[in-house]
Design a protein that fits this description.
heterodimer; A: about 140 residues; mainly alpha; 2 domains; 3 helices; about 0% strand; B: about 325 residues; alpha/beta; TIM Barrel; 8-stranded parallel beta barrel; 13 helices; 8 strands; about 40% helix; globular; disordered N terminus; disordered C terminus
C-alpha cells in the first residue's frame, strides 16, 4: 500500500464551493447522520469519515484528534494520557481491527483533516467525491 | 539507505566532525550519538551557550525540545541558531500542538534559511500537562503527516501542492515509543513514519531492556531497521524519586523492577543513576539494528561527557559498521 508521493497528496482539496441546494441537502443528510452515527460510533462530525478504516471506532474521539494512530503516551493497560480515566481510543481501534481482521486498513496514511468539511455530511461528501469512499471489503493478503 | 558498509576511515579530529552533517553520517551507516538540551524558561540565551560546552566534540546532534511537556520555554529554532553558532549540530524538535499547517511549514522554511537542517517531527504533549492547561491546542497535523509535509517541502512543494522556488535541505526525524501499548501498533506506526520519509527515529528512554528487545525484534522482523536509523533513548536519573515520579506521572513509560530497586537501595543515587545509564548504553549497543544512542540528560547536561567516555561512545567513530548488517542472518 504505497502512498503516492506527489505534490498535494496529503490534503483533500475542495474545488468548487457547495451550492445552496447542496447546503440544504447537507443539513438533511447531517440530521440522519447524527441520528445514526452519533449514538452508534460517538461520531464527532468531522465530515471526513474514516470509520471504515478504523474498524468502526471513531478516531476523532482522541483528545488530540489523531487520524494515523496512537500518540506515544498510551499508559499501562491502554489508558489515555490526557484523561487517565479513559481508554486510549487507538487501543480500542486496534483491538476491534484484530477482531474484524481489518488491521491492514490501519496501514493507510490518512490525509490531513480538511477543516472546511467540519460539521458537514460525510455521506454527501463521499457522493460528491470530496473524500474517499469507505472501504467495506478488501483483499486480505497473507 | 545505509548502503555503505564500514570502512576504516580515520576520524578523530573535531574539525572533520563538524564539517560532516548528521544526514551524511546516517546514510554512511555510522554509529550516531545525539543528546537533548532543554532551553531555559527565560530569554537568557547564554544558558544554551553554557550547556552546549558539555556536548562539544562528543555528540553528532543536539535535540532542542519544543516547549517540552507543554511548558513555555525559549523557542527551539532560536536556541538551535545559538547552538549552530557555537559550532554544534542542532536537531529542532517540532510539535503539532502549537502550530497549524501554515506555521509548521513556515517554521521549517525559516529553520532551513538559518542553515539548520535537522527536524524531529512530534505530535507533542497535550497542554493539560503544562503550565498553560487552559490553552487551545492545535493538532492540525499529526507526527506522520508532519514528516510527510517536511519531506514534501524538501522535494519542493508545499502541502497544497504549490512549488517552492528554493526547497529546504532537510534531515527528518521521528519518535517512537517502544513501551506504550499496543506494541504491534507501534511497529505499524513506525513503518508509516518511515514510509513517508523519516531518516532517523529516536525512541523514548529505555528503562526496560526486555521490553525494548521485544520491540526491536518486531522491528527487525518487519525489516524496518534497514530502512531507517534507530537511535535508542537513554536517560540518566538522579534519584529513585525521579524514577518513581516518571513511572507514575509520565505516560507510556515502563521501568524495570530491578532498576527501580537498584536506585532505591543505592547509597549514592546519582552515581547509581550514571552507572545504570552507562550499562544500558553498553547493552543497547549489542542489540541488533540499533544505529545510535540518544541521551536525554534532563537538566543534567554536564554528565554527558562522563557517560560518553565511560560507555565507550567516544570511540564510536571507529565502529562504522552497524550491527544490523550482521543482524539479519542470526535471526
Amino acid at each position: 500500500m504505497a502512498e503516492p508521493i506527489k505534490s498535494g497528496w496529503l490534503v483533500t482539496r475542495q474545488k468548487n464551493s457547495p451550492s445552496s441546494i447542496e447546503k440544504m441537502l447537507s443539513r438533511i443528510f447531517l440530521l440522519f447522520e447524527n441520528i445514526i452515527k452519533v449514538p452508534l460510533f460517538r461520531c464527532q462530525r468531522c465530515g471526513e469519515c474514516i470509520l471504515s478504516h478504523t474498524a468502526f471506532v471513531c478516531s476523532q474521539r482522541c483528545p488530540k484528534r489523531l487520524r494515523n494512530g496512537p500518540c506515544g503516551g498510551t499508559g499501562k493497560g491502554g489508558t489515555c494520557e490526557v484523561y487517565p480515566e479513559r481508554k486510549c481510543i487507538w487501543c480500542l481501534i486496534y483491538r476491534r481491527a484484530q477482531l474484524y481482521r481489518r488491521i491492514l486498513l490501519l496501514n493507510r496514511i490518512e490525509k490531513i483533516h480538511n477543516w472546511k468539511l467540519e460539521k458537514t455530511s460525510a455521506w454527501l461528501n463521499v457522493f460528491n467525491k470530496r473524500i474517499e469512499s469507505p472501504t467495506w471489503f478488501f483483499r486480505r493478503k497473507k | 539507505m545505509c548502503s555503505i558498509k564500514g570502512s576504516n576511515l580515520p576520524h578523530g579530529s573535531s574539525g572533520e566532525k563538524s564539517s560532516m552533517r548528521l544526514l551524511q553520517k546516517i546514510e554512511e551507516g555510522r554509529f550516531i550519538f545525539t543528546a537533548e538540551l532543554g532551553p531555559p524558561k527565560s530569554s537568557n540565551g547564554n544558558v544554551i551557550k553554557k550547556k552546549s560546552k558539555h556536548f562539544r566534540d562528543i555528540v553528532d546532534g543536539v535535540n532542542i525540545t519544543d516547549n517540552q511537556t507543554a511548558i513555555v520555554r525559549l523557542s527551539s529554532i532560536a536556541s538551535a541558531k545559538i547552538l549552530l553558532d557555537e559550532g554544534l549540530e542542532p536537531i529542532v524538535q517540532m510539535t503539532c500542538r502549537d502550530r497549524n499547517r501554515l506555521a509548521l511549514q513556515s517554521d521549517i522554511l525559516g529553520m532551513a534559511a538559518l542553515e539548520i537542517e535537522n527536524v524531529l517531527c512530534l505530535t507533542g504533549d497535550h497542554q493539560r500537562f503544562g503550565n498553560h492547561p487552559e490553552a487551545k491546542n492545535v493538532f492540525d497535523l499529526d507526527s506522520i503527516q508532519l514528516i510527510a509535509t517536511a519531506k514534501g517541502l524538501g522535494e519542493g512543494y508545499f502541502l497544497c501542492g504549490d512549488p517552492i522556488k528554493t526547497p529546504p535541505t532537510l534531515c527528518i526525524g521521528g519518535a517512537a515509543n517502544p513501551f506504550a501499548e499496543p506494541l504491534e501498533f507501534r511497529i505499524l506506526r513506525l513503518e508509516k513514519k518511515i514510509r513517508v520519509g523519516a531518516h532517523f527515529i529516536q525512541t523514548q528512554p529505555v528503562f526496560d531492556l526486555l521490553r525494548f528487545e521485544r520491540w526491536m525484534k518486531l522491528v527487525r522482523e518487519a525489516g524496518l531497521d534497514k530502512r531507517v536509523a534507530i537511535l535508542a533513548g537513554v536517560m540518566p536519573v538522579k534519584s529513585a524519586r525521579a524514577l518513581q515520579y516518571m513511572e507514575k506521572e509520565v505516560p507510556g513509560m515502563s521501568i524495570a523492577k530491578d532498576i527501580m530497586q537498584r536506585m532505591s537501595k543505592a547509597g549514592d543515587a546519582k552515581e547509581e543513576g550514571i552507572k545504570i545509564a552507562i550499562e544500558t548504553i553498553r547493552q543497547l549497543r549489542t542489540v541488533k539494528g540499533i544505529q545510535g544512542i540518544h541521551l536525554m540528560p534532563l537538566l543534567w547536561e554536564s554528565i554527558t561527557p562522563r557517560i560518553a567516555e565511560e560507555s565507550g561512545l567516544l570511540d564510536r567513530k571507529l565502529q562504522t559498521t552497524i550491527n544490523h548488517q550482521a543482524g539479519g542472518k542470526n535471526e
